[in-house]
Amino acid sequence: MDRRQFLKFSITVAIASLVQAGCSGADAPLPPPDNAVYTLQLGSTAWGIARAVAEKPGTLLMAKDNCVLFVWSLRDSWAFVGIDVSKMKSLYDWSQISGGASLVNAKTMGDMEKFLTGTAGWRIITSAELPAKIVSSLQVGAFSAFIGSMTTEFLVVPAGILMDDSLLDEYQGLKEWY
After folding, report:
1. Domain extent at residue 60
2. Mean pLDDT throughout 125-154?
3. Which of 78, 141, 146, 156 sees the fewest Cβ atoms within 10 Å?
4. Residue 56 in domain
């Protein structure tokens, strides 16, 4: 094997090793402990809402009065987000989900579903029973427009600096002023 072939072989093995390590799932997060609630990013929330509305396996829709609860499975956990339709100012107002959905383990989700469908009076519905405002918003692409309008902000600080509250307060003050 000449030097060029050896170099190509080494690079191929290195890339294959990196791909395999990245796809192994070894870094997959554990489900939250009982009664603990984690928060999902907006993209995961949008993905889950779309799956729930499409009634994909592992999803659930619940309703009570003007409120809708979207529930979906995510790895070994369950995620959910609720929307009060009466607070939607327009078809483009999806601001209630801007904080992301909640992520819980299966036991916590099971306890919550029993409570909601029992004493709290929620009922399981199909996507055909969704309130007209949500259906219209999804049909005109308002939901996609809202998700697309969300931007990610990064705050870059020099390596080794300890970020104290005053720096964060100053950044948030500038953000609100801007």
Report:
1. 38-149
2. 72
3. 156
4. yes
Whether 46 is covered by a domain: the verdict is: yes
Quote the tokens at residue 48: 């889950």
User: What is the average per-residue pLDDT within 55-72?
Assistant: 92
> How many domains does the chain fold into?
1
- Poorest-confidence range of 11-20, 37-46, 106-115, 132-141? 11-20
Burial of residue 92 (CB within 10 Å: 0-12, 13-18, 19+) is middle
Residue 62's nearest CA partner among 74, 87, 80, 77 is: 80
Q: Which residue has the tokens 């959910």?
A: 80
Which region holds residue 136: left if phi is over 0, alpha if psi is between -120 and 50, else beta?
alpha
Q: Is residue 133 part of a domain?
A: yes
In terms of phi and psi (left: phi > 0; alpha: psi -120 to 50; beta: otherwise), the region of 19 is: alpha
In a domain, 178, yes or no: no
Q: What is the pLDDT of residues 16-29, one digit of tens each?
A: 555 555 544 444 56
Strand order in the sheet with 123-125: 38-39, 102-105, 77-84, 67-74, 59-64, 123-125
How high is the pLDDT of residue 25?
46
Task: Show the tokens assigned to 92.
Answer: 């483009």
Contacts of 83 (CB under 8 A, 6+ apart): 67, 68, 70, 94, 96, 97, 134
C-alpha–C-alpha distance, residues 60 and 52, integer Å: 6
